[in-house]
Amino acid sequence: MAKLTVSTASRLSPFLHGLWVAALVACLSPLAAKGAGGASASGPDPLAGPPDSRPVAPDLDSQVILITGSTGGLGREVALELAGRGAHIIVHGRNEERGMEVVEEIRSEGIGSATFHPADLASFEEVRAFGETILREYDRLDVLVNNAGIWLDAEERVLSEDGHELHFQVNYLSTFLLTRMLLPLLEASAPARIVNVASVAQTPLDFDDLSMEAGYSDSRAYAQSKLAQVLFTYDLAEELEGTGISVNALHPATMMDTGMVLSRGAEPRSSVDEGREAVVHLVTAPDTGSGRYFNGTQPAEADPQAYDAGARETLRRMSAEFTGL
User: Fold this and answer.
1) What share of the chain is helix, strand, coil (3-state, %, to 5)?
2) CATH code at position 69
3) Which of 9, 169, 244, 312 lies 20 to 30 A from 321 at CA?
4) 227 close to 205: Cβ distance less than 8 angstroms
5) How does residue 17 score in pLDDT terms, banded at 50, 70 and 90?
6) How many CA atoms lie within 13 Å of 81's alpha carbon, on the beta-carbon side?
7) Is 222 a residue of the active site?
8) 3 state DSSP class of 177
9) 7-11, long-range: CB < 8 A, 24+ apart
10) What is the model's pLDDT at position 74?
11) Structure confidence by residue, pLDDT tens digits, 78-100
């Protein structure tokens, strides 16, 4: 498999460089002591931290790719595939144990590298902390894959701690907030890519009732949040034209055999392998363009509301207000 590379002029951030130096000193100090006739100290290196939580600095020749919702399902498979091509993966999810399992699987293959960062997208506070951590610990970000999403099995609508309908916040608003926070890092790393994992399930947004106080259904809430991702994709692609950042959205595959689908008792219609192929295509294909929506690996038409400039402007304004940007 081809290795993902970037310019050799890229450098590690000061934070990660410091960790690398500390680890090198820790490894060489016992050898130096023995060479001088001394005895090496016993016990773990206090600078290293627990073996399973130590950050691993990305190789200078590896792309840095952040994949939200990558502790399971489609995101996990995409993470393993891209790490197998030499990328450094920023694994994200809510469950640290599952996240570290993905990190260790990547490290054990000895090709790519990975770190895990937790954040609950149902909380803007956690999303902001996550974004700030990435900006602090990395000096480049080549690809952002906004993959995390939920589809609740609930007859009554559920609100986030920030007061928004939960599908809309997790699937869209937190994506909007995180992406906006990371834009300076993506611009500094250009050419860079943003891939929004949306869906063919799309319901027009009612800007007078985005929290669905009237007419709520879990399927409608999911479809509204996914169309919001597509509107955001088109709007952001237009804004970023000429910056070297491409922005695309896709429906990866229909009713994949993921935990989210199986937990609903639904019958899978496709495999997660098909979805992985579609996402990896948008990450790695040489010329995918920008401001496009794909069904699998093929360009497709989204809901007509996605092409309404007025709707996109309204969504942008309301999203900035909701997220405090």
Assistant:
1) 45, 15, 45
2) 3.40.50.720
3) 244
4) yes
5) very low
6) 20
7) yes
8) helix
9) 8/60, 8/61, 10/60, 10/139, 10/140, 11/60, 11/139
10) 94
11) 999 999 999 999 999 999 999 99
pLDDT for residue 55 is more than 90: no
Residue 34 lies in a domain: no
Cα distance between residue 70 and residue 146, in whole Å? 10
pLDDT-derived band at 149 (thresholds 50, 70, 90) equals very high
8 A C-beta contact, residue 5 and residue 63: yes
**Looking at 222, 234, 293, 307, which residue is catalytic?**
222
Q: What angle do CA 21, 23, 29 make, to 5 degrees?
A: 95
pLDDT-derived band at 62, boundaries 50, 70, 90: confident
Q: How far apart are CA 319 and CA 229, in angstroms?
A: 11
Residue 96 corresponds to which amino acid?
A: E
Q: Residues with Cβ < 8 Å from 197, sequence gap 6 or more?
A: 74, 145, 146, 147, 149, 229, 249, 250, 252, 279
Average of per-residue pLDDT values in the chain: 84
In sequence order, the β-bridge partners of residue 165 are 159
In a domain, 103, yes or no: yes
Residues 149, 171 contacting (CB under 8 angstroms): yes
Could you tell me how many residues make up the chain?
Answer: 325
Which of 103-112, 130-139, 178-187, 266-275 shows the lowest mean pLDDT across its residues?
Answer: 266-275
Q: For the chain, how many structural domains are there in total? A: 1
